[in-house]
Amino acid sequence: MDSFRAATRGASTLTLTQTLALTLALTLTSFWEARGHAGSVCHALRGMMRSLLFATHVTPGRDTPAVYAVQRYCNAFFALMLQDYP
What we know:
By secondary structure, the protein is an all-alpha fold.
């Protein structure tokens, strides 16, 4: 009976270890994928803000709502990124 318990304990430990390793691998994969998407959005927002402010002629009365809209999008993006941190 003791050999059966030892074999069962070994098999359950191996199964648990493989399950945890697979879970960790999937979690890290999804983390790096999400980090890549967040970086892409950040890069696109930065490029949009640069093109709006530096590459075009911004007229204070006409383009102010567009500048504020981009700033709101940037603020919302960074607020969503930082909501998981304490």
